[in-house]
Amino acid sequence: GQQLNQSPQSMFIQEGEDVSMNCTSSSIFNTWLWYKQDPGEGPVLLIALYKAGELTSNGRLTAQFGITRKDSFLNISASIPSDVGIYFCAGPERVRDDKIIFGKGTRLHILP
Amino acid sequence: EPEVTQTPSHQVTQMGQEVILRCVPISNHLYFYWYRQILGQKVEFLVSFYNNEISEKSEIFDDQFSVERPDGSNFTLKIRSTKLEDSAMYFCASSEAGFAFFGPGTRLTVL
Q: Which of A7, A47, A51, A79 has an alpha carbon 20 to 30 Å from A85's alpha carbon atom?
């Protein structure tokens, strides 16, 4: 089946720095989703991307759907302490909406 | 804002016991899912449910697992005879338009 590879696995940054993480798939995706998971909670949808080349922002977050449809990136500008958590890329495995698969996540740490 | 709810938040059980995890999906959604997340690992798909039947299941979802929508609002996951390796966070999700909204999860601990 489809595989989603996220990098980096973890990041340690200073508060105020910008963050960039990305996700690649083994085959074409039609929708890219970015979720954030805080400790002990369920994933929360941050951004959904539907078209190749699409660039979408949600506050300090910006995500892009790669032109090849096999990758996506998520940027966070001017990081703050509440950005700490695990960021997952995800998407429907096929065009039908019946199975959403996840990458292994990028764990973001913010140093004091 | 509508949300997915799950009960209980934490379930502790003995190996071999049956557990039922409960979820109330968002009311106008048509697709329902169960995922699990073993501590420190990624979120793994278990099963999807549409039109009152399983539409897809993973290899994790063996004969020990079953799902049910007993009425118009609840969606349940039953594990018949729990194993130690079933210890995980179990997330229910529902979707309408290609992306899933997740509940807060049930932490299952099998002793």
A: A51
